[in-house]
What does this fold into?
Amino acid sequence: MKINPSLTKSALNRRNQGFTLIEMIGVLAVKCKEKTYVGIHRLSTRYWQDLCGHEVTLPPISESQLRERLKKICFEPGTGAGYIYQIFSPDHLR
It folds into this structure.
């Protein structure tokens, strides 16, 4: 899958809010239909440089930290979170 962060960033910015890396990981998980936290972590490490940008040299987030942060934004694996459906139409997420 090819990620286009600029499209996701522009969609998130349309909400007149900033976006976080965790929200972008949530969008990626819904788009890839990943249903487990371990699978979401695997996706995030695989696409880490694309999500962060090539100027960021931080290591990928750990699985436990990612799970904790996804829970903070009320993200549920397999169903997503409310912010995703406010930004993207259901057709876009298929």
Q: What stands out?
A: The helical segments are 5-13, 21-31, 37-46, 48-52, 63-72, 82-87. The chain has six helices and no strands. The chain has one domain: 5-87. The chain has a mean pLDDT of 76.
